């Protein structure tokens, strides 16, 4: 979701949007998954907050008041545990803002189990996804090696780790090494010309998720 799309979403509801800012990573320029929407009055912000959720492009946006970072992290952790234990759903957070009553928007993905969580974390459908703008770097699991040859580089999403509440209590998780290949070519070092070989590393990364746990288990 872009800043313009957030402005159109709330402006179309009759609210006067003063400012929209999606926070980006300073080094990469990519969205960090949260931002802020500021409305003209605190009353408008309160009304948006009271809506609780809105639908956008087939997804549910959860609305709430922005709070200090440490408090928000604690709230998100509690929400994730509640979803996992009571609803069997894991929220994928995409935050945006609001006024002095800043309203962070949490965008829930279609995550209903671990397999769908893996799919979201490894998602990159840049040839068809309109929000990627045909750029393999503009996706959840980016692929710098698929950029045009002059800009291609072995960078982006190079591994993925996930767990759930029950396994986290036992210090267990699942991990996969290498860029995503969901509907995309497998990443291979042989596609690049480097002065030094990558000794000890596999050439192609077509691995599956593996379970990781402490040795004493």
UniProtKB/TrEMBL annotation:
<keyword id="KW-0442">Lipid degradation</keyword>
<dbReference type="InterPro" id="IPR035979">
    <property type="entry name" value="RBD_domain_sf"/>
</dbReference>
<dbReference type="InterPro" id="IPR012677">
    <property type="entry name" value="Nucleotide-bd_a/b_plait_sf"/>
</dbReference>
<dbReference type="Pfam" id="PF00076">
    <property type="entry name" value="RRM_1"/>
</dbReference>
<comment type="similarity">
    <text>Belongs to the phospholipase B-like family.</text>
</comment>
<feature type="domain" description="RRM">
    <location>
        <begin position="1"/>
        <end position="68"/>
    </location>
</feature>
<dbReference type="GO" id="GO:0004620">
    <property type="term" value="F:phospholipase activity"/>
</dbReference>
<dbReference type="GO" id="GO:0003723">
    <property type="term" value="F:RNA binding"/>
</dbReference>
<keyword id="KW-0443">Lipid metabolism</keyword>
<keyword id="KW-0694">RNA-binding</keyword>
<keyword id="KW-0325">Glycoprotein</keyword>
<protein>
    <recommendedName>
        <fullName>Phospholipase B-like</fullName>
        <ecNumber>3.1.1.-</ecNumber>
    </recommendedName>
</protein>
<dbReference type="GO" id="GO:0009395">
    <property type="term" value="P:phospholipid catabolic process"/>
</dbReference>
<dbReference type="Pfam" id="PF04916">
    <property type="entry name" value="Phospholip_B"/>
</dbReference>
<keyword id="KW-0378">Hydrolase</keyword>
<dbReference type="InterPro" id="IPR007000">
    <property type="entry name" value="PLipase_B-like"/>
</dbReference>
<comment type="function">
    <text>Putative phospholipase.</text>
</comment>
<dbReference type="GO" id="GO:0005576">
    <property type="term" value="C:extracellular region"/>
</dbReference>
<keyword id="KW-0732">Signal</keyword>
<dbReference type="InterPro" id="IPR000504">
    <property type="entry name" value="RRM_dom"/>
</dbReference>
